[in-house]
Amino acid sequence: MKITVIGAGYVGLVSGVCFAEFGFNVICVDNNTSKIKSLKNGCVPIYEPGLDTLIMKNSAAGRLIFSSEISSSVKDADIVFIAVGTPSKSDGSADLSHIYQVIEDIHDSVNKNAVLVIKSTVPVGTTRTIKQLLSNKGIELDVAFNPEFLKEGAAIEDFMRPDRIILGVESEKAKDILSHVYRPLYVFNIPIVFTELETAELSKYASNAFLAMKITFINEIANLCEVCGADVKEVALAIGLDKRIGDQFLQAGPGYGGSCFPKDTSALENFARKLGIQVPLVTETIISNRDRRDKMINKILNACGNDVKNKNISILGVTFKANTDDMRDSPSVDIINSMISRGANIRIYDPSFSEQAKEIFKNINFSKNAYDNCNDADAVVIITDWPEFKALNLSELGKRVKNHLLIDLRSMYSISEVRNSGFTYSSVGKKTFKPESQHE
Questions:
Q1: How many CB atoms neighbour CB 396 within 10 A?
Q2: Is 115 helix (H, G, I), strand (E, B) or coil?
């Protein structure tokens, strides 16, 4: 079976590489010629653990090819996945222009016996609209929808061992072909759910909105914990052990960011509003998450005595989450820019060495490691929960800093871990801890 994946961004690249790992012949297509050139040379444009190894392995085996020629790449394909971006418009709705451009690009050359599968996240009804657009051009293709549920930083594992596969189909042909594509997962007893197109489309938005609500919920509980003396980590553990709730996405922090949750919650709210339906839980999730960044800025300011002018602030982690170099809608951008506007001197260390981050923070020094980044710091601020920040040697850190102030926006440490470090510890979901020598 020949598979073509259009769009070599995060979803398309990971999907194409993993399909090749399944043993299929795959062509990944993108109109960004420099990206394709880099991939052909073995340079991976995104930070995703293990992805470079799989690309090298499957390229060497001849199962994985990269191309910028869309027409030639679809003419012999048995199945064509569209995985291009659907960013937010200014009104919060999904911008589908990239998808519709792909339809224009392929309708003359696509194999008429192929199954066309939309993998991009799209509003309900889009897949059916695409099918009608093709029909209007005299092309009767089987069209399906197959949402992705990949977490950045764990995308390969999520693809190879997913919780479920959702397939919106309307024909036995599409069902049979997609069943064959995902047959390698049968050995793991992965549930494969066939639905109508609209159900599959909405399942993607509903999943992301629910996870975004879980993040927002635990952040609001963290606000309570800071006042009443509870520990949000222990609260999250207690409720997460309930199988009806589960422990994932209950990590308090500076709010969600990235390429999915912000745009998908906005798109769902926009879609519902157009249908005359209110989704107040989704709306409040969006508002609460937006306000969360201001709370984090105020937390830093309060810890610094409400004055950061000319103070050296060491930032540890700027990507929106660990194990990625993705800066899209990262809370760090608003937080750091706010500190800069107040006259702070910022230094950054992020384990991904993200080029996106360096492009955003052009006039800020990036350090090679966490300890050097903290030299002469008046405050150390953890924004992203990279594992190495959990293992910081606080004694060594204490020798480097000017002022023993650790502001942990990911609640990575317990009070017992910082008790003898000499640091004042300001965290989310915990009361601020001060060493005995600093108590009034």
A1: 11
A2: strand
Pairwise CA distance, residues 52 & 43, whole Å: 8
pLDDT in tens, 281-306: 999 999 999 999 999 999 999 999 99
C-alpha count within 13 angstroms, C-beta hemisphere, residue 201: 20
- Token pair 């508002």: residue: 287
Residues annotated as part of the active site:
260
pLDDT tens-digit readout, 418-438: 999 999 999 999 999 998 755
Domain 289-438 class, CATH top level: alpha beta
Q: In what helix (H) or strand (E) does residue 400 lie, and over which residues does it extend?
A: helix 394-400
380 neighbors 374 (Cβ within 8 angstroms):
yes
Question: Domain 2-195 adopts which CATH fold?
Answer: Rossmann fold (3.40.50)
Token pair for 334:
């608003």
Q: Find the DSSP H helices in 182-324.
A: 197-228, 232-240, 261-274, 280-303
